[in-house]
Sequence to fold (72 residues):
Amino acid sequence: MLKLSSGRLARLRYLPGSYQVLEQGDHVLCAVSAEPIPLGALRYWSHELQEAYRDVELANRRYVQARAGGLI
Fold:
């Protein structure tokens, strides 16, 4: 796991292909695992669900779950 510099949680608005920082911080939490994701390592998120994911496997797992539950 990467070391977080300040330990401050960021608040983001997830957009298709990018995100907007609403509150400054150095990480967000994975919606599936609750693990911290440093902003510099953030690669996977859902703009429909407004969630971040640690890796592609967790992103895919959440997508399948959300589709089955009618969330997207």
Notes: The longest helix spans residues 56-68. The helical segments are 56-68. Residues 11-68 form one domain. Strands lie at 11-15, 18-23, 27-29, 36-38, 44-46, 51-53.
